[in-house]
Amino acid sequence: MLAFGSPSSNARTSSTCHTLLRELQQIWTDIGESEADKDRMLLELERECMEVYRRKVEEAANTKSRLHQSVAAKEAELATLMAALGEHNINSPIQSEKMSASLKEQLGLIMPLVDDLKAKKEERVKQFADIKAQIEKITSEISGCCNIVNSLSTLNLEEHDLSTRKLSECQSHLHALQKEKSVRIQRVLDSVNEVHTLCGVLGLDFGETVSNVHPSLHETSLGQYTNISDSTLEGLDQAILKLKTERKVRYQKLKDVAGSLFELWNLMDTTREERRKLSRIISFLDISESKVVETGALTLEVIQQVSAEVERLTKLKASRMKELVMKRRAELEDLCYKTHILPDSSTAADKSSAMIDSGLVDPCELLANIEAQINKTKDEALSRKEIMDKIERWLSSCDEENWLEDYNLDHTRYSGGRGAHINLKRAERARITVTKIPGMVDSLINRTLAWEDENQKLFLYDGVRLVSILEDYKVSRHQKEEEKKRARDQKKLQDMLLAEKESIYGSRPSPRRSNSFRKNGYHTNGNGSVTPSPRRNSVGCATPELQTPRSYSGRQNTYFKEMRRLSTVPLNFVAMAKEDTMSFSSIGGSEPESPPQG
């Protein structure tokens, strides 16, 4: 019979079998079995033992096969887990101990690794599921879709890749989405705040405005988040654009109404107390429309309030129109007087009053006409400013010239009286100024002609062409210079005749008596007769004198009227020469003393 096992166990089994076999043979002997029966029964017994051994061998082989399959399955599972988790750095201990270890030992070695990787996989799956859930949630918020698909069901499609690299990619994607979400939330908050400000300025319902874009922007219930989708952002942008457009329209409307209000205030001489009621409401109109953020600044009630005030003042203006027309006409005349421009006679005070009383003209149209004339006069005065400044300097120089002439006729100017040195300094400055007058007049003429060419009209000064006035002034000034020269020549001739008389008669008038006559405007000649002392003559006399230009600027064109009279009545130099000859023959060659020379 076959025996397996260790030597000691085999020995025990063999001895037991021999003992049992001897006992069986003794029993067969006692029974009286034949040898053939004994051999047959022994053969059957051996056959039955072989069947038992064979069955045990088959069972052992099956067990070994199953262990091989289990080891292979665990190795395959281990490899799958390692590939899914990206754990390529783990070396299987089976490869190193496969030749020496039994199947059960191999299975015992691989099972802990598989269990450890399974636990790690479950943890990794949870991480992926959490990240995927957050990604899908944020994606749904951004897209505006509220249906969130189960993360685990979508994750099963990607369980083959649970590596840390894939986990890092998902985390990076999540961080990008979280950043975009933060940006969108900030954009939504900024837009909502701007909508709130604009609604406050316009007096609109903020809740209704943002709820029309998306309900979550005004009231967020439990489990509902503020919508940050593209459609919401676009809706907010459109709402802001619409509100800004409305703000611009209302601002312009209020500005137009306020402009009319300011005109009516100025026209009606509205008191400061009455203006204060609405001044605060429209005080922000000085800034640009985009900077208006005051609550209630552009509500319909404000616009209606200002419009009602304009309507009230307009009705009040109609009843006071004649008074307003007279007032504006007076302003026009005052402006024309200051700028030396003749006002339009079509809207004169008496004519305007008569037309309003007769109903021939609408007072509003007449007032608008006067307003247009005022604006036209202001524009023309602005263009004439440079020339008017030159005229003022010319007139001032003429005043200095007249003062210098009076100063030169003052025989006490060199006395040591009070203020004599001040007048002396002024005389020096006046002499310098007088030398500049001809050039000043020529420059003024050239500038006036250039202005006339530029504006295609004549430059009128109180209704008279300025160039004509200046030309008349030049002629008159030349005549005056000629008269001064003739007076100097006459004085030299008189001095010569006086010197000749003195050489013949040896006598000379007493200076004291001569001075006393001179004080009364007379002087003595050589034979004792008395003749008037030369004085400045008026314009109508033989020696013309220029009127003081400053007298024009202070008393309504006296000077330029005199210039126009001079231009129409020329001086007769022949007559003046005859008068001078008669004067010389009457005095018999005598001449007064020369005034003290400065």
Automatic annotation (TrEMBL):
Residues 500-556 are annotated as: Disordered. Residues 507-518 have a biased composition (Low complexity). Pfam families: MAP65_ASE1 (PF03999). Residues 522-536, 545-556 have a biased composition (Polar residues). InterPro entries: MAP65_Ase1_PRC1. It is found in: Cytoplasm, Cytoskeleton. Keywords: Cytoplasm, Cytoskeleton, Microtubule. Belongs to the MAP65/ASE1 family. This is 65-kDa microtubule-associated protein 6-like. It comes from Datura stramonium (Jimsonweed). The lineage of its organism: Eukaryota, Viridiplantae, Streptophyta, Embryophyta, Tracheophyta.
